[in-house]
Amino acid sequence: MSKVAETTTTTQSEKIVQSQQPGELQNIQAAYRLDGRNYLKWSQLVLTVLKGKGKISHLMGTRPKPGDPRFEAWDEEDFMIMAWLWNSMTPEISDTCMFLATAKDIWDAIQQTYSKARDAAQVYEVKVKMIAAKQGSKTVTEYTNQLKALWQELDHYRMIKTKCLEDAVVLKDFIEQDRVYDFLVGLNP
After folding, report:
1. Are 183 and 130 in contact (CB under 8 A)?
2. Tens digits of per-residue pLDDT, 142-183?
3. Residue 17 φ/ψ, nearest 5 degrees
4. Which segments within 20-151 are labelled E, that is strand?
5. This protein's superkingdom (predicted)?
6. Which DSSP letter does residue 10 get?
7. The whole model's pTM is what?
8. Where on the phi/psi map is residue 179: left (φ > 0), alpha (ψ -120 to 50), or beta?
9. Ramachandran region, residue 105 (left: φ > 0; alpha: ψ -120 to 50; beta: rest)
């Protein structure tokens, strides 16, 4: 009889319950279900869980060749990861990738369809949320955390490469100053 220890991490709208036994992916549950609008958070959750379980190679495409003694175990794990991926999506989305052959195929198809990194529409949505963010009845800490989450999302979509260290420092200072203004605009008077 194996013991399964559970670790629960709860934030505003997500909960992850992970098995502490290395090969038991079937006990991983994700309250974040990919619904088409939350790809960034969902993909981060998937990567974190699979990396933590030592199974990230299934999404990267590194696998033993058929005939390799490790292939059968890898293949069984891949099917388990495929099932977990499908269960972490809404039925409408999982139906679109139900007949793909590997977890990597599913990951790539979902990434191609829903990844909006550097997408102007996503940047626009985040900026609208930032402008609408007000302290209201929130504590200063809650308001700050709301803005920080939006800034992190914006940073993901807007990866700006600089040519030299001096430019990076100037850009960082500019962004920090801009964020102080964002913060001050939403504070209660």
Report:
1. no
2. 999 999 999 998 988 887 888 999 999 999 999 999 999 999
3. -115, 120
4. 29-30
5. Eukaryota
6. E
7. 0.62
8. alpha
9. alpha
